[in-house]
Amino acid sequence: MTQLSLHRNREHVEPQHAAAREENEQRSAWLHEWNTVWFVCECSDHVCPDQIPLNRSQYEELRTSGTRFGVAASAKHVGPSSDRVVARHEHHWIVESATS
User: Fold this and answer.
1) How far apart are CA 95 and CA 28, in angstroms?
2) CA distances (Å), 85 to each of 2, 27, 62, 77, in order?
């Protein structure tokens, strides 16, 4: 992912998602050394303790849009009025935030 696309993604991030997104962008560098990296759940609960394992292709799929977030695979991580699940995987779901 280029610096431009990272910047573009940051412009669309809600405040409660910002810390998790920033942490995960830093962790994504570990994908150069490891096949799978544990990422912070990007749900709207800013104290969510859950983490999700992603490989490089899963992380890149997640970052195709600045309005998409990776959350633990459970309905409790999906905002009922603001999020729409766009992909379901075994350990994580990708949600698109209507408010981003």
Assistant:
1) 19
2) 26, 23, 12, 10
Q: What is the pTM of this model?
A: 0.78
Do 63 and 9 meet the contact criterion of CB atoms below 8 Å apart?
Answer: yes
Q: Within a 13 Å sphere around the CA of 15, how many CA atoms are in the beta-carbon half?
A: 0
Token pair in block for residue 16:
């409660």
Strands 83-88 and 68-72: unpaired
Report which DSSP code applies to 32.
G
Helix (H) or strand (E) holding 72: strand 68-72
pLDDT tens over the chain, length 100 residues: 333 333 334 344 466 667 888 899 999 999 999 999 999 999 988 889 999 999 999 999 999 998 899 999 999 999 888 889 999 999 999 999 876 5
